[in-house]
Write a structure and sequence with these properties.
heterodimer, A: alpha+beta, Immunoglobulin-like, 2 domains, five-stranded mixed beta sheet, 25% helix, B: Four Helix Bundle (Hemerythrin (Met), subunit A), 24 helices, 4 strands, EC 7.1.1.9 (chain B), translocase (chain B)
């Protein structure tokens, strides 16, 4: 914002009387060094934030499997994996890795309130680290255009109280 | 005619130091005009429209057609906004909605932006560089017809309801046969590839014209900045379009013949498509931005009554952008599961490319500071550009930050960002450029007031529409959804966006009306109404097809448009008039523009239209699924190209021409440095990137792709012998052609080298056919088999073309047309032959490495 304002002000000031300018100061000072400085700061910040949200350490693994045009999920239960359609169950307050796959075309797993998105690509398995801070229901959707019913390809993530994990029934107690 | 042109053939060729070229004696301007006009003008009536090859006519036609497609794309955008205005839009069904947004993107990219910049460059460059036409006038016309016919195929599909609906980047496997069984995706692949012929031909043409047609003494380091921008653009097009064309060809082969390049079940990889597509798609953004920046760098200093600040730095920034933009494609794929180190690298590269942009922006602002800016209509659009593009650039930096990208990727935020960049960075500068050059193109003055009204409608409408979409995207609205019944909180924003979208449309309609009024009813404009210094204004309005009655030497280039105009019209420059009744231009050296020879350009012809029609027959047969008939359509294509080449031969009257007192230039360059040769080198450069992309595909499928293991292919002795024989035969031809050439150049007959080369090529082609049909594993079995077959087919195609090249030279030898200085066809055949040999050797090595790696 400040940068945009600065450019606007400079353009506006340009409409004054002609004045002598130093080419080097504008082209190299502003064009090269100033922009490089700003960009480096942003890049460092980005790498730092990016590093923090990368998967570090072990996490609970759940699976998300996409197909045209629905999601099926599975999470570890008391007796082996429990599968569910359209609803992903995770525990709140601890890191979860979603292993994302697809049967047919490219989809993308995205829960806006929980973090970034990751594509579901046929033939590959992608990993996305999530963490829900508190129990609740979060909306999720397919974020890569995948054909006719793309817009209807929604799902829910239910984050359970860690004390009640794993949930007893596939539906689980709605928090 | 009182021309001193009765050139004695034995005048010694003077050393051509451009600085010391004397002026020709002045003549009557009107007489010169009549003489030139008779030679250069288009034929009258409809026939003239079909046979025109003039860059002025074709440049205008490209731009008008591009604006018509812009209108169609805009109408589609209005349909999208109408659908999204309410949560439960019942206006379009989902399938139609998908087709409409796919076509909106494809039309704006391939049928508006690229042809628009090609048209502007084709129209302006010869005028700015001080010459009479582009290097290959018939190629300009061919490009136009391919563009028009390809565009019509896409529009016809839209009207018939079978337009592609897979999104404008056509991700596989969604665009594969299984999930898109109709011909919709084929329409995109074949139609867009057909249109790309025009992009490639324009790139070759602009490249060669900028490097070799500049007026004598106009050094590379002195040429107008617009030419530098277009040189960068042309280079990027030559390197950027081949990966897209390759991707389209491979995907079409998968759809038509089941070669599983992108099918994960048979070892293919959907990510290969994404790599190939964005390898084109990201440079594409800069291909679009550079010409627009070129307009800004041209217009801003003149409207500020000063010189541009930092010419050298801007040139460096252009070159930096050309290189950096090819290192960025992965940033469209941040969410596909790329290793994190690679993400950090591409994130940094994405940010680095902002530096050359910043250099240019600050150079423009410094120019504003140094001069006295005048708030004319083009300046309004330039301010619109600053306002919009800087905001788009900032959201771009936000998107380059990986964590943010994961959040905003594929939301309305991205849609908003790309419209800020494309409309801010391309459309506003282009509108400024159109307003700027309209007096040149129409020869008339603008109607007052309308243009300003259009500007404010467009500006307010644009920001109203897209600023709000940032917010909608941050609230989580994904792209490409037709309805959002469960998210009532998005309604108000969407409704406002739709409202302002229609405001913007009113603005564009006003702009179009303004142009029509100006072209039809404006008052005659004075010459050079902006008092610009560049050569594009040193001519009558609207310009005659020949641009300049005589070509400006260094003195007239530095005199400025005002002073040069009269001297040029009176024939005081070089090569005045058309006393020999031929279309003559000067060819100069690449670096310092030392005059080298006089080139004779082709006259009006219907051949480009016929060739484009023949190619469209091939495309339509492929679309109809008549794969066995389609190759038959190649027969007229080859025949027409043959006729094309025969008509391009050097004139029989090759008497050297005195272009200025004491400066006598040959019609045929002694060293073979013809324009055709430069064009062939450019084509081979593009061909080389195509080949490199194919090798990248081979490596990617063999090494990176998951999926079922590659079945072994134990290449037996027959295969080894056959490939060895192919290489030996191609090498034999590659040795034979230079031998024949040296015979010709020393005044002898071609000798055995030529027929031997022809026979060797034919035999190599036959062997490759036998190998491909009989010995290679079935290409539908596994992607590795498919890509191997594709490589062999690539070599086969080159051997076939080499056969045709040698056949053409053989035919010339039979007719006795090969003579010293007239053996261009033989020389170019040799070049093609060497490339073919190299490609075959690299292919063999790559296939061997593929087997060795398993």
């Amino acid at each position: 914002m400040a940068l945009a304002l600065m450019v606007f002000v400079l353009v506006a000031l340009g409409f004054g009387r002609p004045r002598a300018i130093t080419e080097g100061r504008w082209v190299f000072g502003m064009g090269v060094w100033f922009s490089l400085g700003v960009l480096s700061l942003i890049l460092i910040a980005a790498l730092w934030v990016g590093e923090r949200i990368l998967p570090h350490g072990p996490a609970l693994e759940v699976r998300a499997h996409a197909r045209q045009w629905a999601w099926s999920f599975s999470h570890p239960g008391a007796e082996g994996p429990v599968t569910s359609e359209g609803v992903l169950h995770i525990p709140a307050g601890r890191p979860v890795d979603v292993l994302i796959t697809s049967t047919d075309v490219i989809h993308s797993f995205w829960v806006p309130q929980l973090g970034g998105k990751m594509d579901a690509i046929p033939g590959r398995e992608n990993r996305l680290r999530l963490e829900a801070a508190r129990p609740g229901t979060y909306e999720g959707l397919c974020a890569e255009f995948c054909g006719l019913e793309h817009a209807a390809m929604r799902f829910e993530v239910i984050a359970h109280d860690p004390a009640q994990w794993p949930p007893v029934s596939p539906e689980g107690p709605r928090p | 005619m009182n021309t001193p042109m009765n050139t004695p053939a034995n005048t010694p060729l003077t050393p051509h130091d451009p600085a010391s070229i004397p002026a020709n004696p002045p003549q009557r301007a009107l007489g010169l005009h009549r003489e030139l006009d008779r030679v250069w003008r288009n034929a009258p009536g409809l026939r003239g429209q079909i046979t025109a090859v003039s860059h002025t006519t074709l440049g205008l036609r490209f731009m008008v057609t591009a604006f018509l497609f812009f209108g169609i794309g805009g109408l589609l955008a209005m349909l999208i906004r109408a659908q999204l205005a309410t949560p439960n839009g019942a206006f379009l069904d989902t399938a139609l909605y998908n087709q409409i947004f796919t076509m909106h993107g494809s039309i704006m990219m391939f049928l508006f932006a690229i042809p628009m910049l090609e048209g502007l460059a084709m129209y302006l460059l010869p005028k700015m560089l001080g010459t009479r036409d582009l290097a290959f006038p018939r190629l300009s016309a061919l490009g136009y017809w391919c563009y028009l016919l390809g565009g019509l195929i896409l529009i016809a599909a839209l009207l018939a309801g079978v337009a592609p609906g897979e999104g404008w980047f056509m991700y596989t496997p969604l665009s594969g046969k299984t999930y898109s069984p109709g011909i919709n995706a084929d329409v995109w692949l074949l139609g867009v590839t057909f249109v790309e012929i025009s992009a490639l031909s324009a790139a070759i043409e602009l490249m060669v014209s900028i490097l070799r047609l500049r007026a004598p003494g106009m050094k590379l380091t002195q040429m107008p900045l617009f030419a530098w921008y277009m040189l960068g653009t042309a280079a990027m097009m030559l390197a950027g379009f081949p990966p897209l064309i390759l991707g389209s060809v491979l995907l079409e082969m998968e759809r038509a013949f089941g070669w599983p390049f992108f099918d994960p079940e048979r070892g293919g990889d959907p990510l290969l498509w994404q790599h190939l597509f964005w390898l084109f798609g990201h440079p594409e953004v800069y291909i679009i931005f550079l010409p627009a920046a070129g307009v800004l760098s041209t217009v801003i200093p003149v409207l500020c009554r000063t010189q541009i600040v930092g010419y050298g730095a801007i040139v460096a920034a252009i070159l930096g952008m050309v290189f950096l933009s090819f290192g960025l494609w992965v940033h469209h794929m941040f969410a596909v599961g790329i290793p994190h180190l690679a993400l950090a690298f591409f994130s940094a590269a994405s940010m680095l490319v902002a530096v050359p942009t910043a250099v240019q922006i600050f150079a423009w602002i410094a120019t504003l500071w140094r001069g006295r800016p005048e708030l004319k209509l083009p300046m309004l659009y330039i301010l619109g550009f600053f306002f919009t593009f800087v905001m788009g650039g900032l959201t771009g930096v936000m998107l380059a930050v990986v964590p943010f990208n994961w959040q905003a990727h594929d939301t309305a935020f991205v849609t908003a960002h790309l419209h800020y960049v494309l409309i801010g960075g391309f459309v506003f500068p282009m509108l400024a450029g159109v307003a700027w050059w309209m007096p040149l193109m129409s020869g008339r003055r603008r109607v007052r007031g309308l243009g300003e009204a259009a500007f404010w409608f467009i500006l307010v409408g644009f920001h109203g529409t897209f600023f709000l979409m940032h917010l909608t995207g941050l609230m989580g609205m994904a792209r490409r959804i037709p309805s959002y019944p469960e998210n009532p909180e998005w309604t108000a924003l969407n409704l406002s966006s739709s409202f302002f979208g229609f405001v913007m449309t009113i603005g564009f309609a006003l702009f179009a009306i303004d142009l029509i009024l100006q072209a039809g009813f404006g008052k005659r404009s004075v010459r050079n109404p902006w008092k610009a210094p560049s050569l594009d204004w040193a001519m009558a309005l609207p310009p005659p097809n020949y641009n300049f009655a005589s070509l400006p030497g260094p003195a007239l280039q530095q005199a400025g448009a005002e002073a040069a105009m009269l001297a040029l019209a009176k024939g005081e420059g070089l090569l005045p008039g058309a006393p020999r009744g031929r279309r003559e231009i000067l060819v100069t050296s690449v670096g310092t523009a030392r005059p080298e020879h006089v080139a004779i350009l082709p006259v009006n012809t219907g051949l480009p239209l016929l060739l484009a029609l023949a190619i469209s027959a091939f495309v339509l047969l492929m679309l109809a699924g008549l794969y066995t008939l389609a190759p038959l359509a190649l027969i007229p294509v080859v025949t027409l190209i043959w006729i094309w080449a025969r008509r391009a031969m050097a004139p029989l009257d090759a008497t050297p021409i005195e272009v200025a007192p004491g400066l006598v230039l040959p019609v045929q360059p002694g060293d073979g440095g013809t324009l055709t040769r430069s064009g062939l080198v450019s084509l081979l450069f593009a061909n080389g990137t195509f080949f490199a992309s194919l090798l990248f595909g081979l490596a990617f499928i063999s090494l990176v792709s998951p999926g079922p293991p590659r079945p072994l292919w134990p290449a037996d002795r027959t295969v080894l012998l056959a490939t060895g024989a192919v290489l030996a035969l191609l090498a034999m031809a590659a040795l034979g052609l230079p031998r024949a050439l040296s015979h010709i150049e020393t005044g002898r007959r071609a000798g055995a080298g030529l027929p031997v080369a022809f026979a060797a090529n034919l035999l190599a082609l036959a062997l490759l056919l036998a190998l491909g049909l009989g010995q290679l594993p079935d290409p539908t079995r596994h992607a590795a088999d498919a890509v191997r077959a594709a490589l062999v087919a690539y070599v086969g195609l080159h051997a076939a073309i080499a056969t045709l090249f040698t056949a053409f030279a053989l035919d010339q030898a039979r007719r006795g047309e090969l003579a010293p200085g007239r053996a261009g066809a033989l020389r170019n055949a040799g070049l093609w032959q060497s490339y073919t040999l190299a490609a075959a050797a690299v292919t063999l090595a790559a296939l061997w490495a593929q087997e060795a790696a398993s």
